[in-house]
Design goal:
disordered N terminus, SAM-dependent_MTases_sf, Arc Repressor Mutant, subunit A, Rossmann fold, about 525 residues, 3 domains, WH-like_DNA-bd_sf
Length: about 525
C-alpha cells in the first residue's frame, strides 16, 4: 500500500483526493470524479489536469473495486473516448463527400469507407466495447431473448434476399408496402412483419406508416452483391449445418473424414460438392467480409524502417502499401499467378516511363508521384510456391500463408508452409541476419485478441469443422514445422511472434541459427 501511495499520491492530490479518502467513495462517486476530470477543464494551480492524472484516477477506481467493475468502467471510457474522436471528425466535415462536401443521404453510411485508420479504430472500439458491456450485463433471460431475436432476424434477412425484395425497394424514395409486395410477388402482411424485424437493427427503414425505404445498411446489400452472397451463405449453408453438429457427434464421434460432417448430414452430398461454383462464390464472399480480409494491415505491424536500405522479397500479392513505407527499401514481388505477373510487369514498365513534356511538374499530383517513385523500386518475378528461393542477401523474405478453406485442408496449408520454409532455409543460413516474416491467421489463445476478432476467428474455425472437419492452424503447428527444418550446419528458429490485439493476423519472424563449426 505504501508503494501505491508514494507512486500515485501526488497525482491523487491533483483531483483533490487521497487514497484514504478515495476508498471511502462509493463506486458511483468514484466514476464521477473521473468523468469530471475528463469533461471539465480542471486545473491545479495554472496547470491543466494531464493524461497521467486521469490514468491515476482510473487506477484508483480499479484498486477499490473488483475486476469486473474495473473492466466495466474501462469499456465505458473507451466508448466515450472513441465517440469524441468521431464527433470531432464529423464537426470538421471529415465524413462529408470528398468531392462535393455535401451531407450524406439516408443511404450513406454514418462512417463512410476510405476514412483514416484512426476513425476506423474509433468505430471498432465503440462496437467492441458495447458488445463487451452487453455480455457483462446480460442475464439468462436477456441471453435467450437475444438468441431468439437473432434467429428471427436471420430468417427475415433470408426471406428478403430469397424473394429479391431488396431490389424492389427504392434506394432513397419511400414506397408503399403494397407496391413492393406486388412487385416481389409476396404477401403484404408477411412483408410488413419481416421488414419491421429487420428495421430493428437498421436494415431497411419505415419512415412513415405503410412505407418502406432502404437504410444505409440495407442499401449496401444492393450495391455490393458479394454482401448478399455472404448473407445467403450464412442463412442457407452455415446456419442449417451448424444445427446438425450435435447429431454429427452422436453419429460419427471424433472423426476427420470429409464425408462425416454436419454439412453432409444436411445436404447428403459428396465431399466434391465443395467445388460447386455457387458454394465457392458464397463462401469466398463470406471470407471477404470476415477476419481473413485483413492482410493489408501488415504495414503497421512490422518495423520496416529499421531495415534501412535493404531488399524485401514479398511472396504475397495482396500487400500493396509496403513500397510507400520507406524510400530506401527495394521490393521484389514474387507471384505464381502468370496473369498477375504479366499485369504487374506492364504497370512497372509504364511507371518507369519519363513524364510527358506537355505536363508540368505542378500538374503531377503527390499521390501519382509517390506511386511512380515506389513502383520503380519494385521488381516482379514469377515463382511457384515451394520453389527454391533464388534471391540472395535480402533483409526480409515475406510470406503470407493463406488459411484453410472448404477446398483447402489444414494439412495442405501446413505442407505448403513446410515447402516454403525449406525453400528459404539455404538463403537464411547464408545470411544469418536475414529474416523470414511469416504472416498467418492462427487460432488465438483466449483473451489475446479483442473479443470481436477472437469471436470471428473461432467462428471461422468451428465453421470449417462443421463443413469439412478441418480447422484453423495453431502456433504449435508452426513450431512443429520449424523443428523439421535443419541439418548438421544449422536450423530454423522462431525469434519473435507479434500479435496486435486489433488485427487477426500473427506475424512470425524466423531466422536461421548456424551451428558453430567444430574445431579440429
Amino acid at each position: 500500500m505504501s508503494t501505491v501511495v508514494s507512486q500515485y499520491g501526488p497525482k491523487c492530490l491533483c483531483v483533490g483526493i487521497t487514497i484514504t479518502t478515495f476508498q471511502q467513495f462509493a463506486l458511483k462517486e468514484a466514476v464521477l470524479i473521473v468523468f469530471i476530470a475528463q469533461w471539465v477543464d480542471l486545473e491545479v494551480g495554472n496547470e491543466p489536469l494531464q493524461g497521467q492524472d486521469i490514468a491515476c484516477a482510473s487506477f484508483l477506481i480499479e484498486y477499490t473495486m473488483d475486476t469486473s467493475w474495473a473492466s466495466f468502467h474501462e469499456k465505458v471510457f473507451d466508448i466515450q473516448d472513441a465517440a469524441q474522436v468521431l464527433s470531432q471528425a464529423a464537426s470538421k466535415g471529415d465524413f462529408a463527400d470528398t468531392v462535393t462536401k455535401a451531407h450524406h443521404s439516408p443511404t450513406d453510411s454514418l462512417i463512410p469507407s476510405g476514412v483514416s485508420s484512426e476513425l476506423v479504430q474509433a468505430r471498432t472500439s465503440i462496437l467492441e466495447s458495447s458488445e463487451s458491456l452487453q455480455c457483462m450485463l446480460r442475464d439468462p433471460h436477456r441471453l435467450l431473448e437475444h438468441l431468439m431475436f437473432q434467429t428471427q432476424l436471420l430468417a427475415s434477412l433470408q426471406w428478403l434476399s430469397s424473394f429479391q425484395v431488396l431490389a424492389c425497394i427504392p434506394l432513397e424514395q419511400p414506397t408503399t408496402f403494397e407496391d413492393v409486395a406486388e412487385l416481389a410477388s409476396v404477401p403484404k402482411s408477411q412483408l410488413v412483419r419481416v421488414t419491421r424485424i429487420a428495421a430493428m437493427v437498421g436494415f431497411l427503414r419505415e419512415p412513415e406508416p405503410g412505407h418502406v425505404v432502404h437504410s444505409a445498411l440495407s442499401a449496401r446489400f444492393v450495391l455490393e452483391p458479394f454482401s448478399l452472397d455472404a448473407l445467403l451463405f450464412i442463412s442457407d449453408i452455415a446456419s442449417p449445418t451448424s444445427m446438425q453438429m450435435t447429431r454429427a457427434t452422436k453419429t460419427y464421434g471424433e472423426t476427420q473424414q470429409l464425408d462425416q460432417t454436419p454439412y453432409q448430414l444436411v445436404f447428403h452430398t459428396t465431399p466434391e460438392s465443395m467445388e460447386h461454383p455457387k458454394l465457392r462464390r458464397q463462401h469466398a464472399a463470406y471470407n471477404r467480409l470476415s477476419a481473413y480480409n485483413h492482410v493489408t494491415d501488415l504495414p503497421s505491424i512490422y518495423d520496416w524502417h529499421s531495415l534501412g536500405a535493404g531488399t524485401v522479397v514479398e511472396s504475397v500479392d495482396t500487400i500493396q502499401a509496403l513500397p510507400q513505407l520507406s524510400e530506401d527499401l527495394k521490393f521484389i514481388v514474387q507471384t505464381n499467378d502468370i496473369e498477375m505477373h504479366d499485369h504487374m510487369q506492364v504497370l512497372s514498365r509504364q511507371d518507369r516511363r519519363p513524364p510527358s513534356r506537355s505536363l508540368s511538374t505542378a500538374a503531377v499530383s503527390p499521390t501519382t508521384a509517390r506511386r511512380a517513385t515506389s513502383t520503380t523500386r519494385v521488381q516482379v518475378q514469377y515463382r511457384t510456391h515451394g520453389a527454391p528461393q533464388t534471391v540472395q542477401g535480402a533483409a526480409v523474405y515475406l510470406y503470407y500463408v493463406p488459411p484453410p478453406s472448404i477446398t483447402r485442408t489444414v494439412n495442405q496449408v501446413l505442407a505448403e508452409l513446410d515447402a516454403e520454409l525449406r525453400a528459404h532455409y539455404p538463403v537464411l543460413r547464408a545470411t544469418p541476419s536475414a529474416t523470414l516474416v511469416v504472416v498467418m491467421h492462427l487460432l488465438p489463445e483466449p483473451g489475446v485478441l479483442s473479443g470481436h476478432l477472437e469471436a470471428n476467428l473461432r467462428t471461422l474455425d468451428i465453421l470449417l469443422h462443421q463443413l469439412t472437419n478441418q480447422r484453423l492452424s495453431e502456433e504449435q503447428d508452426i513450431l512443429n514445422a520449424l523443428d523439421r527444418i535443419g541439418d548438421s550446419t544449422g536450423r530454423l528458429v522462431l525469434v519473435k511472434k507479434s500479435i496486435d490485439r486489433h488485427r487477426p493476423v500473427t506475424v512470425l519472424e524466423v531466422k536461421a541459427e548456424v551451428f558453430p563449426t567444430p574445431s579440429l
